[in-house]
């Protein structure tokens, strides 16, 4: 034999569901401040359902539902958004961040890049193409359409037909270099900055520069731990790339 539910049970359950929905929305960070748009009609319906519960004999539950819809839930909705926003702000303040100086330089938080060495055979000559390359430890960001953060790559190349080269490359963007060449500024460790002549590649790619005076450049590079190179970019001004060059075996 089944036990019949009290007549007030259905409206009581409906009232509690409406109150829970309203209070739940108020806990959503930032959006909770707009919970009143939903709370006014829903709590009004819950208040009416509380009266229905009372009229059907559910005195205790009806009074509790009246209190929750008229006073308890409104107080909760008024306080909850501030609590949830404060909680999110607290989490954000404890997350690791870069200092203002590091952010302006685009410092990459990943481990420092190291030299990578490759060697490939040259099918058109007797000999191998050897290369040592390293990424910059910082990134730069240009305006659209080159707006994602990117590293520069410094490469040393020994080619059986084309000779020895120092190559500076970016992933996307436009080095500002005329047909007759341009200049880049290099600083090895804490020595004085030096100017080196640079030229475009034969195919006029705007993402690559060949830095001249290979012997002098590499001689200083072997003794250095840090290298900074400044180059000019079309409509972007000058940018500095920072390389951790210690440990070069070349």
Can you tell me about this structure?
The chain contains 5 helices and 9 strands, in the order ααααβββββββαββ. The chain is α+β, with helices and mostly antiparallel strands. It has 2 domains: 9-93, no CATH class; 109-244, no CATH class. A 9-stranded antiparallel β-sheet has the order 1-2-3-4-7-6-5-8-9, with helices on one face. Helix 1 (9-26) runs antiparallel to helix 2 and helix 2 (36-55) runs antiparallel to helix 3 (59-93).
Radius of gyration: 34 Å
* Amino- and carboxy-terminal Cα gap: 92 Å
- Biggest sheet details: 9 strands, antiparallel
Number of strands: 9
The average pLDDT score comes to: 87
Strand content: 25-35%
Low-confidence spans: 93-105
Element-by-element helix/strand order: HHHHEEEEEEEHEE
Count of DSSP-assigned helices:
5
Order the strands across the largest sheet as they lie in space.
Answer: 1-2-3-4-7-6-5-8-9
Specify the helix fraction band. 25-40%
Number of domains: 2
Please describe the structure with a list of short key phrases separated by commas or semicolons.
25% strand, nine-stranded antiparallel β-sheet, rod-shaped, 250 residues, alpha+beta, single chain, 2 domains
